[in-house]
Amino acid sequence: MSLESKPAKIVVAASGAGRSLKNLIEAQNFYKSFEVSGLISSSERCGAVSIAKSYQLPVFVGTFDGSIEPSSDLLTWLKEIDPEWLVLAGFLKVFPVLFKGMSWEHKIINIHPSLLPKFGGKGMYGNRVHKAVMESGEAESGASIHFVNSQYDQGQIIAQARVPVLSNDDANSLAKRVFTAECKLYPQVIAGLIAGELPLASQEIKTC
């Protein structure tokens, strides 16, 4: 990034504890090509909201009823921030994808704690994923970053990080190893996308 260029604004969407949000906030000081400029959440009481407020980030909390079109309130809020990328990090609702003409259109990404297309889809999040990996007898797991479309975990895969499944693992120990990989992979991929070193999404938006 040149000295004259400003970091790209990213807005994070999260529904849980906010560990990935905090990781990205800390990582922006190293990468300097992006800055976390706000949080979208589906729950006022989640840890991510508390973390965002502690960093004095603007927060939007909505109900997210499954529509692939954004509510007018969300669209207005996003227009005020005008992010370049929307970054999902443990967001458990269907996220709207039809942002026609906006700067972040086709720039919505998500991270999932498995090697997609395995162990993805509706209801597959958190330890549910890791338990399924263990029960299937997989030799490895990992994290996948993909573009977001209207179907859970089915967007174009951008990058993956692989970790071994050890003989003495349980879902919790595997989760910790995968999350460590996520913390390295996500900011790297965001920086790579901003720099144009990774492919952008197809213009096609799949509808339900």
In short:
By secondary structure, this protein is an alpha/beta fold. The chain is built from five helices and seven strands; from the N terminus they run βαβαβαββαββα.
- What is the N-to-C succession of helices and strands? EHEHEHEEHEEH
* Range of helix content: 25-40%
CATH topology-level name: Rossmann fold
pLDDT below 50 for ≥5 consecutive residues: which ranges?
A: 202-208
In total, the number of strands is 7
Could you give a short account of the major beta sheet? Answer: 7 strands, mixed
Approximate shape: globular
Distance between the termini: 38 Å
Beta-strand percent range: 15-25%
Biggest sheet: strand arrangement: 3-2-1-4-5-6-7
Radius of gyration: 16 Å
User: How does CATH name the architecture?
Assistant: 3-Layer(aba) Sandwich
Tally of individual helices: 5
SS-based class? alpha/beta
CATH class: Alpha Beta
What number is the mean pLDDT? Answer: 92
Number of domains: 1
Task: Describe the protein's architecture and organization.
- The protein has 208 residues and is an alpha/beta fold.
- The protein has a single domain (8-194), classed as Formyl transferase, N-terminal domain (Rossmann fold, 3-Layer(aba) Sandwich), CATH 3.40.50.
- 31% of the residues lie in helices and 21% in strands.
- The chain has a 7-stranded mixed beta sheet with strand order 3-2-1-4-5-6-7, with helices on both faces.
- Helix 1 runs parallel beside helix 5 (171-194) and helix 4 packs across helix 5 (171-194).
